[in-house]
Fold this protein.
Amino acid sequence: ETGVNASSLNEIKLPEIWLFQFLPKMQKMDLIIRQSTECGVTKIIPIISDFSSKDFSYKKDDFERTARWERIVKEARQQSGSAINTTIENPMLLEDALKMWNEGAKGCGFVLHEERKKKKNIFSVLKENTNINKIGIAVGSEGGISEKEICVLQETDFNLVHFKTNVLRAETASLYGIAAIQTAMTELDEWHIHE
């Protein structure tokens, strides 16, 4: 079964988007993977973290779930017509995910946070980070992201971002964050003109 023909995000020349999703409950993770793929995320990295669902550990079942997630990616790409080859990594610890992030192309990272800790917004961060090839978005599980993990992300130059909305569920925050950052990237040139 083939999906609709959607315009390719490749034509817009956006940087790659990497989603660092701190593992929520499995049913929510399935939805996050589907929606992220439909939005054109390049890489999804499930993070086993301090507040991750207890459904997950380094068991054999976890890697069988990854095969299920790959099927979800394939179906979502067909349905949305996405030309982006979304890949999903095996679940890993944050430190391992950040090693992968630091290899290769220059990137700019965001941590979606429910509290306003710093006064930077997406546009100001993007203005400071020109010529980037990838954007990282770190989204917490149901319990959020621990202070220790936030410190590790900030040491890797991820920027805390707070959206002036209600506190969002993990699966809503991922979709909202991806959409907000994609919109900022596609409108960045126009935004600079009006400065």
